[in-house]
Amino acid sequence: QVQLVESGGGLVQAGGSLRLSCAASGRTFSRYAMGWFRQAPGKEREFVAAIIWSSSTTYYVDSVKGRFTISRDNAKNTVFLQMNSLKPEDTAVYYCAATIKYYSSTTSYTNGNVYDYWGQGTQVTVSS
Q1: Distance CA 125, CA 114 (A)
Q2: Whether the Cβ atoms of residue 34 and residue 26 lie closer than 8 Å to each other
Q3: What is the pLDDT of residues 107-118, one digit of tens each?
Q4: Contact predicate 122/83, CB 8 Å
Q5: Is the pLDDT of residue 87 over 80?
Q6: Spatial distance between the Cα atoms of 49 and 59, rounded to a whole number of angstroms
Q7: Terminal C-alpha separation, the chain
Q8: pLDDT digit string (tens) for 24-51?
Q9: Of 15, 33, 69, 87, which one's alpha carbon is 20 to 30 angstroms from that of 63?
Q10: How many other β-carbons are positioned within 10 Å of the β-carbon of residue 127?
Q11: Closest by alpha carbon to 21, among 3, 9, 38, 39?
Q12: What is the mean pLDDT of residues 58-72?
C-alpha cells in the first residue's frame, strides 16, 4: 500500500509560480511511475505530467509544455511539479498518482486508469 500526500497548492496571480510536492510512503518509491493530474470544476480529470522510474522519461500535456516541470527525488520519496507562468485556466485540484505496474508503451502512463494510488489533492487557484 502506498500513501500519497500532496502539498504546495495555493492562490497565485497569473504569471506566477507554484511548486507542488507529493510525498509517498513505502520503500520502493523508485520503482513507481508517478503522475500529476488535475480536475477543474465541472470538467473531467486531465493528465498533466508523468515521470517514469529513472526520471529520464517524462510526459506533459501540450497545454503545460514549457511551463511545468515534473521531477522526483527518490531518496526523499517525493515527486514535484514546478509550475511557472501560471494561467487562470490552470486553476484546478491537482492530484498525484502512483503505479508500480509496468507498461512497455510508456505513453500508457498518461492514462489515469493505469494508476493504483492517488493523493487527496491540493487546490491551485490562479487569478487573472
Answers
A1: 27
A2: no
A3: 899 999 999 999
A4: no
A5: yes
A6: 5
A7: 40
A8: 997 788 889 999 999 999 999 999 999 9
A9: 33
A10: 11
A11: 9
A12: 96
